[in-house]
Amino acid sequence: MNMVSQDSARANRVLGALPMVDYLPMVSQLEAVQLQPGQILEEPGAPASHVHFPISCAITLVSATRDGEMSELALIGREGLVGLPALLGAPSSAVQAVVLRPGLSYRLPAAAFVQVLQRSAAMQTLALRHVQSLMVQMAQGVVCSLHHSVLQRLSTWLLFHHTVTDSDQVRATHETIAHMLGVRRESITQAAGQLQSAGCISTSRGRIHIHDAQGLRSHVCECYALVEQDHRLLWQLPQQDEGSAPLGMGPWSHADVERAADHEEDSGDGPASGRYADIYDFAPVGLLSVDAQGRLMETNMAAAIQLGISRSQCHLYRFVDFLQPESRQAFEQFHREVLSGKCRRHCELGLLPGAHRPAAVVRLDATVDENGEENRMVMVDVTESHRQMAQLLHAHGRDGVASADVPSPDGMPWWGSGAGPAATAPARMPSF
Do 185 and 306 fall within a single domain? Predict the structure, then answer.
């Protein structure tokens, strides 16, 4: 593989949560591939040659009858992996794995993946979490097909696809979706017409465009919420290793703070009020809000300390004032994409040194507020993670890793001219 970076292969949730000491020995065997729609990765009765870790693609697991009828069992995006035979020690696959949405994936030879499983307890845990998520998805799919309407099932399928892929566009015909859900094409067309009339979606040739994901939620059955809840609980299990990346946004996010604030408003001036205010003020990660022009609106104490400013004076600064010159253009692009409201985003940027701290690398996870006017960010210092990666790369003598994507031994990336430290990308995990 020509290049592996934290914002490439580790954008996959499984690889992103893997400790560096387990991840780096895999780097030389990972291969970046562009998957095409309809491409078959696994066939029933055939052994799996590779294990795939999706990044921007989506893979569906389907079961087909001899007369050509099929049903979708599960949909896998960047939160998981494809290659159950290698994971479970099975000689062959029992299902067909088909690329539904084209895009980037990283693959590892099945034999190499088995070796990783044998030496890495972390990979075993992460892989089993994925199996658990597939079991829940499949089980709930059975219940859904027996008890819920086509409109509910289509809404659930579209919203799940939207969540898994971080995309507002689904590349699938009505006929394909009908096959996946095991219903008549006419039923899908009718249900899609209802959703289009409600302003949730629009359709074009071979594509469905999602305009109102929240509106879709009003049409789904309880199956979506149950699968979503299971995924959220599954992937918020605590990490044991310092070298591993956070799962999603971890236990502290702006969403958590917003939920606490809503609860505080509902509860009035009771004893809980101060407690929920403390959640924001004393969270162990930086929390900050930036307006459409890039000016700081509010910070918690951790963010103020990271930036080296007083909270009361944060409105005097633009966030780019604290960034290294090489990172400013990347942040401006990142900021525009967040405000577009299409999906939660993340990037890694360099902070200028302050009066009482050296230069640092921070990870930003961001989402837009409900009015589309405010960029709400979680800021985590990942300098030490970069330092560890550089040291381990050096120790392992890894070649073929682009200097622009690999941190130097002093903890800072080797940023080249004209390129930011990390390209912005959809949030690592769907909001599960």
Answer: no
**Tokens linked to 266:** 């509902």
Q: How many domains does the chain have?
A: 3
For residue 116, the domain's CATH number is: 2.60.120.10
169-170, strands of its sheet edge to edge: 169-170, 207-210, 201-204
- Which residues partner with 97 through β-bridges? 42, 61
- Do residue 113 and residue 201 come from a single domain? no
Asked whether residue 184 falls in the same domain as residue 276, the answer is: no
Under 8 Å between Cβ of 273 and 264: yes
Judgement on whether residues 158 and 117 belong to the same structural domain of the protein: no
String of DSSP letters for 297-361: EEE-HHHHHHHT--GGGGGG-BGGGGB-HHHHHHHHHHHHHHHTTSS-EEEEEEEPPBTTB--EE
Ramachandran region of residue 157, left (φ > 0), alpha (ψ -120 to 50) or beta? alpha
> Do 312 and 370 lie in a common domain?
yes
Residue whose pair of structure tokens reads 């990172």 in the numeric block? 327
Q: What does R_g of the chain's alpha carbons equal in angstroms?
A: 22
Query: Is there a contact between 78 and 135 (Cβ–Cβ < 8 Å)?
Result: no
pLDDT tops 80 at residue 344:
no
Give the mean pLDDT of 115-127.
90
- Residue 253, pLDDT > 50, answer no
Q: Which residues contact 256 (CB under 8 A, 6 or more apart)?
A: 279
Is 128 among the domain residues?
no
What pLDDT score was predicted for residue 65? 74
**Whole-structure pTM over 0.70, yes or no?**
no
Q: Does position 431 have pLDDT exceeding 60, yes or no?
A: no
Could you tell me if residue 138 is inside a domain? no
pLDDT of 404 over the 50 cut: no
Name every residue whose Cβ is closer than 8 Å to that of residue 253 and which is 6 or more positions away in sequence: 365, 378
Alpha-carbon gap, residue 425 to 344, rounded angstroms: 9
Range of the domain at 19: 9-121
* Pair (272, 365) in one structural domain: yes
